[in-house]
Write a structure and sequence with these properties.
mainly alpha; Arc Repressor Mutant, subunit A; two-stranded antiparallel ribbon
Length: about 325
């Protein structure tokens, strides 16, 4: 009999699962993520930068992009290697089976090659999570780790629980078991994405890690509370909320009815591509600022400033505020 991890299905979870499923249906209906390789690459870069930033890697999205594109940057060699490794892990993700221990170890080897001694291997010693000098979580005894991971994957393979919930449970249990000497957080987030991608491949390109990074304190609080309870319920609810936020931020990348053929004819290709990328965000949010635009488009601050100026001059966007507080919204031409 396969041991089931402790959790409780709540009404909140089911409502969030319904909301996520509806959004995924709309995104798939556009076909954009199936054909837009640039959009997928931008989101892959965001996923990698955010997942590493959670572990205190200081490289920016632009620097991560340069590394992935083979450019030289000035930076900590270890942090650069972390980016290169994470890129290998994410690029090979869809070749991995989320329910096979050997693939789990292979992914860890991608993620930690030349960074840790036990790369691609379960740890041989005890490990704890500390807050300062205080031990806040002690991982499973090393002799039990392989069996616990195998039991978890066997359960995940055979359960009929919804993949959105299942992926969050797998994520939590990996963190709770803490199977590796290093890289547990990166592996937990990667493996949730992989479980989701096995359900809908589009999740391979959705930067859930970015929302985790932007809600990092709540992430650790949810992990901590679930850990104390030895029950993943609160963590599942948190991760489902994060996925909803990540989906609402996606640039679905379609030109809406407010942008006519006349307007698009006035834009250069780079400006039109920028507009397409931010329209999806603005359909779900009243305003966008330069910081959010950089995350969505992976463009430089200087380029974004020029694009925003052009779109404001063409009355496609309306600007409010000044300097760092400046933000933009769609001109919906409501009076015309």
């Amino acid at each position: 009999m396969i041991n089931q991890p402790p959790y409780t299905i709540t009404n909140k979870m089911m409502n969030l699962v319904g909301e996520i499923s509806e959004i995924i249906g709309k995104i798939q209906g556009t076909g954009e993520y199936q054909r837009n390789l640039h959009l997928r690459k931008v989101n892959r870069i965001r996923s990698i930068q955010s997942s590493l930033a959670i572990e205190n890697n200081t490289l920016t999205t632009g620097q991560v992009s340069d590394i992935i594109n083979g450019k030289r940057i000035l930076g900590n060699p270890r942090e650069i290697k972390e980016v290169q490794n994470a890129y290998q892990a994410y690029e090979n993700m869809l070749t991995l089976n989320p329910f096979l221990v050997k693939d789990f170890l292979k992914a860890h080897q991608y993620m930690t090659a030349d960074l840790v001694k036990e790369s691609g291997k379960f740890r041989g010693g005890n490990v704890g999570v500390y807050s300062g000098a205080n031990l806040i979580h002690l991982g499973a005894r090393p002799e039990f780790v392989q069996g616990l991971i195998k039991d978890l994957f066997d359960w995940a393979k055979n359960t009929d629980v919804h993949p959105l919930i299942k992926s969050s449970i797998v994520h939590f249990e990996i963190e709770f078991i803490h199977p590796f000497a290093d890289g547990n957080g990166r592996m937990g987030r990667l493996w949730q994405t992989l479980v989701l991608a096995a359900w809908h491949e589009i999740f391979a390109w959705i930067p859930i890690e970015t929302m985790v990074y932007e809600n990092q304190q709540q992430y650790y609080a949810a992990l901590g509370n679930a850990g104390k309870a030895a029950d993943s319920t609160v963590f599942i609810e948190f991760m489902l909320e994060v996925i909803v936020k990540a989906l609402h931020e996606l640039p679905i990348n379609k030109i809406t009815d407010i942008i006519t053929d006349i307007i698009t004819d006035k834009l250069k290709k780079a400006e039109l591509d920028f507009l397409k990328n931010i329209v999806g965000y603005l359909e779900n949010h009243e305003f966008i600022d330069s910081y959010r635009a950089r995350l969505l488009t992976n463009k430089s601050a200087g380029s974004i400033k020029k694009y925003f100026a052009t779109l404001v001059n063409l009355e496609i966007l309306v600007a409010e505020g000044t300097n760092k507080g400046r933000k933009y919204k769609l001109n919906r031409f409501e009076d015309e």
